[in-house]
Amino acid sequence: MSGMEEKLPKLWTPNFIFISLVGLCNAMAFQGLNVSLPVYIDELGGSAGLAGLAMATLTAAAVLARPFVGLALDKYGRKLIFVGGLLLFLLPSITYIFIVPFWALLMLRFVQGLGWGVTHTTASTVASDIVPPLRLGEGMGTYNVTGSISFALAPLMSLWLINQFSFRTLFVVISLLSVTALILSQVIKYPSQAQFSQERKVELFSKEALRPAVLVLLIAISHSSVLSFLALFAREKGITNPGVFFVFMGLATFFSRPLAGRLLDRLGRRGFDLAVGTAVPMLAIALCSVAFIGAPWQLAVSGTIFGLGSGTIQSSMLTMTIKLLPGKHGSANAIYGTFLDTGVATGSLLWGVVAGLVGYQLMFGLTTVPVFLCLAVYFIGRPERQTATDHQLNLKD
């Protein structure tokens, strides 16, 4: 170990462990519902378009909430906002236990979307508060491993509970996960109220963060096809539990997110270039392979490639957004989450319509188009020399 590495501040503090556990429980509940509710709607007699509408309703609500949550976090602090968001997410989960009809499900998903927008933005903001600045890329990549674990376990868990027990059992488990997150959130040590300025300028969006935000939007549009329709496509292909895709995807992102973060911390702008240049082709290859699945092992291969690409580019864009908005962690996480949710909502509606017109196989092939647009957005028209804005991406000695 080099002398520089020995001087790096500690990452695994009790606070970091607690916020990571909260993020894990919350993400498990969120992803478990995302994968299972399209199946629930299908059994109620709903179409692929209606399944996409349910996802879009949640993400639209999150999009509405996030910018204002980011401003509130930077002006008023973290804890009370966090608790309120966790309760908003929990209450609909409890209501699902009573097996609600589709129209009520849409209303509850909107409320839950507000809760998700608040909790996801706040949890990421608290994590970025806790992580030492010199280890921001690695720390946020490590924190976001909670998302990797949830992608690996939540779909498998939810589909297994449906197949072995019932939707009611699933909703009970989801509610217990949310309650656990609420309890753990109370033991975190948050920044003091004195650190937040009541006079902070109101700014719903920052042009400095436009490039990473647009990349997140495009990736999320493609990503939503897997979240919303992979389970239905796999059933059409005779694969009973497509959770294997999410297991291998989660394992791949488990490793790719922290490694990408360390690369960004050490190489700065060159690290971001390398991350985007390698992640985009991997995502395109994975989505093309999904279109031709016929066996569980193919899902495993596709999930692994997708996880490597997704973990790398998502960690990179989140870290870039935070570094480009120093001192505004709430706003940075809100911008990232807003564009992420907008992409998921747009993609859920778009791919639902496309699947109804041309089928799932061609639909998954078309999802590569937004992915390839990422290369154009990131590289074309960018000055070769490092600009003042790009200089902020090098927060290292």
Provide structural commentary.
The protein is built from 16 helices and no strands. The protein is an all-alpha fold and 397 residues long. Helix 4 (79-96) packs antiparallel against helix 5, helix 6 runs antiparallel to helix 10 (243-267) and helix 11 packs antiparallel against helix 12 (296-324). The longest helix has 30 residues, at 14-43. The protein is globular. It starts with a helix and ends in a 6-residue tail after the last helix.
Task: Report the uncertain regions.
Answer: 1-5
Q: State the helical fraction.
A: over 70%
Number of domains in the coordinates? 1
Main sheet attributes: strand count, strand direction, barrel closure: none
User: From the helix content, strand content and strand pairing, which structural class follows?
Assistant: mainly alpha
- Average pLDDT confidence is 80
**What is the helix/strand order?**
HHHHHHHHHHHHHHHH
Number of strands: 0
Q: Which CATH architecture would you pick?
A: Up-down Bundle
CATH topology call: Growth Hormone, Chain: A
Morphology: globular
CATH class: Mainly Alpha
Rg (CA only) = 20 Å
Number of helices: 16
Q: In CATH, what is the homologous superfamily?
A: MFS general substrate transporter like domains
What distance separates the N and C termini? 17 Å
Instruction: Estimate what percentage of residues fall within beta strands.
Output: under 5%
